[in-house]
Each structure stands twice: as structure tokens, then as C-alpha cells.
Amino acid sequence: MKLWFLIITLTISTACKTAETPKSAEIVQSEKPLTIGDDKTFSGESTPSEIKVRVVISRPEDLRVRVGEEIKTGDVIADRKRERESLMMQKQQATLALERMKKLMWLKDENLEKPILPDASFAEYEAAINRAAVTVETAKRSINLQAMRIKEIESLSFPVDLTKVKQHESARLDLLKSELLAAESNLNLERAKLETAKANRIYAEQKDALEIQKSKIAVREQRITIEAQITQIEATISNLNVQIAALSAVRAPFAGTVKKINWEGQNNAEINVIITVDVDSGGEPERAK
């Protein structure tokens, strides 16, 4: 939206009479801007008889005076109220957006420091290893006992043939040895499960640490983006403040009567107008209330 500035050019002419020379037709222009609310007292020859106020408006409705209308010091002669209100609405929206952005700046990554995984526990695997180890030791004792039994049988001297007994006990020993091998294999398997579980835990922790680091980077990047947006919004608000101030109502610096309104033309959406006012010759101008 194109934003417009009111430009006020005050051209002050005064007629000064003398008894000796024909300077009564000379136009004297004041180069010092007339400021409403100035403490200077305009009286006598310092008070202009006529002023011309140049204003820039966007709509004819922005002009608040008519030819022949009497005005007092401080009366509004032009006001681009609709544009000013539009800018103020934009400022309000920008301010709300700025507040939201500042709240987002309070994003914290404290929760990212907390471990996502539960505490590591390998008690189940360790218990299985202990049970397997007990089974192995039991198998070893059984083998030792069976071997001693066989020796005892071999040392006996009976008149009967003990070959079948020996074969039976030897078969029993072989079975116990196979059970020992199975128990040792199971023990190794349980140990391997523990090592695998530990390796998986390390991998999971490393993966979580990587995810946390990625999240931290994402938060930092988001903060950088938010900071840039905050800077942009603050610049927008500052610019809007300047434009709102520039669109303040134009007020009459002197009391008088509107003599003439000249429409100089239009440039894009700007309408240039010169308002000629016959200043009251009542001495000190009225102060705007």
C-alpha cells in the first residue's frame, strides 16, 4: 500500500504601507515556518494578512474546509483519517505478530537434554546367563559323579559279567556329556544375547543423541529465523509510526476565512490542493485547544 505524506507549504504575504515610498504593493514572504502552538506572538506587521497552505490528500473528502468558511487557529483543514486508521490497523496487527514472535523466542531445549530411552537394564539377560551357568556346573558334576560310578563298577570283582552294566553306565555318561555340551552352548548363547543387547543399547543411545543434536540445530535455526522476522516486524512498525505521524491532521496556523481552494492536479493517488486563507487582523492568533 502506498503511503502518503502531507506536505504543508505556507506562503505568507503581507502588505506594508509607508507614507514616503510606493512599497505598499510589495509582497513579503516569511521564510520561517508557522508552527501551531508556538509561543511567539504575532501582532502588527508580523501578522500575515494572507496564508496559503499546500496540502496533499488522497480523496476530496479529506479536505475539511470550504470557500467562505471561517476557521480558528488549530481547526482541522485536511485530514487523511481513513489512511491513518488503515495504517494504525496495520500497526496493531504487526504489534500482535511481534508479540507472538517474541513468545516463540522463549523456546527452550531443556527437554532435549533429557534421555529419551529408559535406564539401561540387562538384569534379564544376566539372570538367564546365571541360570545357564548353573546348568553347566550341574552337568559337570553329574559327569564327574558318573565317571566315578563307572570306575567303582570297574573296580568291583564279581563272579558275574558286568559288561552290560558298564555299557549302560557308559551310555549314561555319554548322555550327560551331550547335556553338558548343550548347556555350554546355551550359556554361550545367553552371553551373546547380553552382548547384543548392550550393543543395541549403545546404538540406540547414539541414535538418540544424534536426534537430540538435530533437534537443537533445528531450534537454533528456528530462533535465527524468528529473530530475523522480529527485526523485520520492528522495522515495519517503525516505518508505520513515521507514516502515521506524517498523516497527522493539518490544522490552521491562524484564524481567518477560507478565501480560495485551488486544485492543482493529481499525481497517482495524490491530490495537491492549495488553500488560501484571509487571516483575521485581530492581532494575536488563537491557540488551538
- Judged by helices, strands and strand pairing, the structural class is alpha+beta
The number of domains is: 2
* Distance N to C terminus: 33 Å
Largest sheet: number of strands, sense, barrel closure: 6 strands, antiparallel
Within the largest sheet, what's the order of strands? 2-1-3-8-7-4
Gyration radius (Cα, Å) is 51 Å
Order of helices and strands: EEEEEHHHHEEE
The strand count comes to 8
Q: How would you describe what is shown here?
A:
There is one protein chain. This protein has helices spanning 81-104, 110-113, 123-155, 163-246; strands spanning 10-14, 28-29, 50-57, 70-71, 76-78, 250-251, 256-267, 270-279. The model is unreliable at 1-44 and 283-289 (pLDDT under 50). It is 50% helix and 15% strand. It has 289 residues and is an alpha+beta fold. The strands form two sheets. The chain has a six-stranded antiparallel beta sheet with strand order 2-1-3-8-7-4, with no helix packed on it. A two-stranded antiparallel sheet has the order 5-6. It has four helices and eight strands, in the order E-E-E-E-E-H-H-H-H-E-E-E. It folds into two domains: 10-105 and 258-279, no CATH class; 111-229.
Search tags:
289 residues; alpha+beta; six-stranded antiparallel beta sheet; 4 helices; 50% helix; disordered N terminus; disordered C terminus
Briefly, what is this?
With 289 residues, the protein is an alpha+beta fold. It contains four helices and eight strands; from the N terminus they run E-E-E-E-E-H-H-H-H-E-E-E.
How would the blueprint of this fold be written?
Layout: E1 10-14, E2 28-29, E3 50-57, E4 70-71, E5 76-78, H1 81-104, H2 110-113, H3 123-155, H4 163-246, E6 250-251, E7 256-267, E8 270-279
Antiparallel strand pairs: 1-2, 1-3, 3-8, 4-7, 5-6, 7-8
